[in-house]
Amino acid sequence: MVDMSAKLFLITPEILLLIGAVVVAVLGLSSNRRVRNAVPWTTVGFLVAAIIATDVVYDGSEAVTGADLLLPNLGLYLKVMVGVIAIGLVLVGIGMVDRRYEEAIRNGRAGFDPLRVVRGEYHAFLMLSIAGTMLIANANDLIWLFLAIELSSLPTYVMVALGRGTRRNMEAAIKYFFLGAMSSATFLYGFALMYGATGTLSLTGMQEVFATQAAAGGIPFFGLLGMVLAFVGLSFKITAVPMHFYAPDVYQGAPTPVTAFISFMPKVAGFGAIIMLCMAVGWSGHHLIDDAGIKVPTEGLPRPVHATLWVIAVLTMILGNIGALLQTSIKRLLAYSSISHSGYMLVGVIAGTAEGIDAVLFYLVTYGVANVAMFGALCGLQRHDREVETLDDLSGLWKRHPGMAFVLALSSFSMLGLPPLLGFWGKLDLVVAGITAGETPLVVIMMATSAVSSYYYLHLAGLPVIRKPDARTEGVDAGPTPWPRIAGVVFGVGILALPFAAKSLMTQAEHSTDASRLASPEAAADSTNPDSGMSIEAKGSSGRA
Amino acid sequence: MNETVITLTQSDATTTMLPVATGTIQIVLLTSAVMFAIGMVGFLTRRNMILMFLCTELMFQASAIAMIAFGRMHLNPEGQVFVIFILTVAAAEAALALGLVVLLYRRKPTLDAEAWSELKEC
Fold this sequence. Notes:
The complex is a heterodimer. By secondary structure, chain A is mostly helical. In chain A, 71% of the residues lie in helices and 3% in strands.
């Protein structure tokens, strides 16, 4: 049992972000333009502070090893990843929030009205959502997990509504919010059933109870139904199949920087939560009871959970990639592409054990980096003072803005998984994990759908080069501030350069499953006393060397 | 029924909770399942935004009832603690929902969700 101060020490990065949220919310109301312009940079400052704090907290401290977590070291990787990519997402949004109103104030056409500026709120909600996502890494019971997921998703509903100028915006916000509330209720009911099956809310306690139950007669029906409901509910956060249909509408209707944010941050939160729940139930030691009443050991997650995730993954990959083929709007296309990426990552979750989790965590980085680069390029461009919308707007971009066309091509190639780029290594890692776990059919479907995706990614990358500029694209030019483009270029360089650091990134991802309470096959084999070996092992090993 | 008073002490929280008949628990669980199903069906069929929101609230409260029932079944207070948090989050979501609905109502004076269907597959 850790005391309160140790627990608070563990969440220092999140506390910093919460302070930051209050600070920028106040700064955003200042009547001084310089102060308002400093808001994004204050946000970046607090994010950097949070990253540094994460490094300090996880530097072999007692708070981490004693915190009774399923994955004690997950936080180091996840929080740093979320922090770094969030800096990119803030840069992508600079100059986009409140743009018209700020211009009007500068030209003297409008006076300053604190009720009309949203810059402070936007960045405050952004930081709150990031704090929620980071908190998931420290979840040690279902209450914490639930609150962290809600903290990461409630601010995003407001962020979608913040560009309150257009009707599309409002529609996107209301769709996002209602489905979000419904999905929260669904996984909450799943949590209730899991609590009913185990009698504890603590994730480590739940893991021990599940292991005992699996060794005895199998996990009770309530527990399995709870897991299934929880996954169906969480599929909203990761835009996976039963709750994916909102994604194209919301991504299209939201302001582009917000689209960039909601295509990455809730996904991290969702996968964090899914990994936690899968850890609790374990990838080994389960069995089926056949007609003759004999126990048949099975690989991986318990069969019903495995089947649910399998169907979700396959449908997500297929529907995501097929849907993207027909799109003319860039943001709708990216929505479907983001759906299909969730499908790929679910392969890693199903494969499970340390390799699968590492692959998912690594893939999140590759996806996040490509995502920032892509949206950096999109936010850096404008057409007649509005967002770039259709694929046609991009034709001939190569002639006018070669840099942005290059970043766009680079990020789509990375998302497609072309060999030297970052995305390839992420996909390779997932494939290896899938095959190692014996999920060959799933991997085959992943490769096939990934091949289908080459059509639209090549389209996105090729249009700027191949098609001639026409009257419509005459209006496309660079946006008012260079920062989104700078973010695009920096993360584009990341796509090229990070493969050289892929080894150390993967080592970091692997480090996050070190010292975890991952039930090894041996531990499950002699599961007559399931809680003895595992907990000693987890307590004994130190944090970061 | 002063025996059923729950005292939350660090050492042993369960001693003062008396077990109840499993039949009672089952009835409560059934109620929560029915509430959840009504909420889900209502959410999918209703098109009034306020009613849709109330349906999600119904689903939240169904989970809360299930939590309480399970907490009673296992004779530990964790489920009831969770309910406090569920209520808090549900209140936050209610504030957000009403704010959004007011924002939408100012643009189009209707509560019909169908009126907002500009974004769709082309």
